Automatic annotation (TrEMBL):
Catalyzed reactions: N(2)-formyl-N(1)-(5-phospho-beta-D-ribosyl)glycinamide + L-glutamine + ATP + H2O = 2-formamido-N(1)-(5-O-phospho-beta-D-ribosyl)acetamidine + L-glutamate + ADP + phosphate + H(+)
Subunit comment: Part of the FGAM synthase complex composed of 1 PurL, 1 PurQ and 2 PurS subunits.
UniProt organism field: Candidatus Rhodobacter oscarellae
GO molecular function, one term: ATP binding
Family: Belongs to the PurS family.
PANTHER family from the UniProt entry: PHOSPHORIBOSYLFORMYLGLYCINAMIDINE SYNTHASE SUBUNIT PURS
The encoding gene: purS
Name listed for the protein in its UniProt record: Phosphoribosylformylglycinamidine synthase subunit PurS
Amino acid sequence: MKAKVHVMLKNGVLDPQGEAIRHSLGTLGFEGVGSVRQGKVIELDLAEGTTEDKVREMCEKLLANTVIESYAIEMG
């Protein structure tokens, strides 16, 4: 069983990497990009029967800094 965890900075939290990407896209001639938010995807290979609640617990304890980041879980 696999799970993907998408981690992003919460709205209102400064994203210097996203701003650097936006600036670089403009430098390369890609116009019209208003803002960029950069995040990460964590792919987990889980034992059968692992629940979404267990993955949520992993996120809360380690995978995401819930003070400044939000996360979404895809099970499948």
